[in-house]
Design goal:
This protein is α+β, with helices and mostly antiparallel strands and about 180 residues long. It folds into two domains: about 120 residues, no CATH class; about 40 residues, no CATH class. About 20% of the residues lie in helices and about 40% in strands. The protein is built from three helices and ten strands. The strands form two sheets. Strands 2, 3, 4, 5, 6, 7 and 8 form a seven-stranded antiparallel beta sheet that branches. A three-stranded antiparallel beta sheet has the order 1-10-9. The N and C termini lie far apart (about 70 Å). Bound molecules: zinc ion (ZN) (2 copies). The site of one zinc ion has 6 residues, from loops.
Length: about 180
């Protein structure tokens, strides 16, 4: 949601609180779609600090469906987001930094701020390095693709560890010397 901040920007040390709903229902990241399962409105707090900086603070929670790293089953991942941003002000307008001038993803434009971009940025910062549907997820069978959490297909799933292969080569070399 885009918030018009003309009033805050024109009044030194003015602050305002706005309840904002995140407009997106799906996160589109690197050609993957991640549905948002649940979202609550964010409470945004804006402060014009001495006509020099716009301080933005917001908190909110949402849940995103992300595939499990082992079995690919969609897993509900909760995000507790805290946004803290400081944007520079000049002549009652938000200044877009030079290095951001040709990106479309800068969250502000003159007198308005795009809260969706701020929320999206914060989701990215908090994106988990690893997602498991459960700690002991058994993953997929490398032979037939069966989700081994549901049933055991009985295939031989022994895959030699490539690091062990390296050590075996090393022993082989010692023998030859
Ligand atoms: Zn899993
Ligand atoms: Zn199998």
């Amino acid at each position: 949601m885009i918030i018009d901040l003309a009033e805050s920007l024109s009044k030194r040390n003015f602050s305002e609180d706005v309840t904002v709903s995140f407009d997106r229902d799906v996160l589109h990241i690197m050609s993957e779609d991640y549905p948002i399962l649940k979202k609550e409105p964010f409470e945004f707090h804006f402060v014009n600090e001495e006509n020099r900086r716009l301080y933005v603070h917001a908190e909110g929670e949402l849940q995103v469906a992300i595939p499990c790293d082992r079995c690919l089953r969609r897993t509900r991942v909760p995000f507790s987001l805290v946004i803290d941003r400081i944007l520079r002000l000049s002549d009652g307008m938000i200044v877009i930094p030079e290095e951001e001038s040709d990106t479309l993803a800068y969250p502000a434009d003159g007198y308005s701020i795009d809260c969706d971009i701020l929320v999206f940025d914060e989701i990215m910062v908090n994106w988990p390095a690893k997602v498991l549907c459960r700690d002991d997820c058994k993953g997929l069978c490398p032979v037939c693709g069966q989700n081994l959490n549901d049933k055991d297909c009985g295939h031989d799933r022994f895959v030699p560890d490539p690091r062990m292969a390296g050590i075996q080569d090393l022993f082989q070399n010692f023998k030859e010397v």
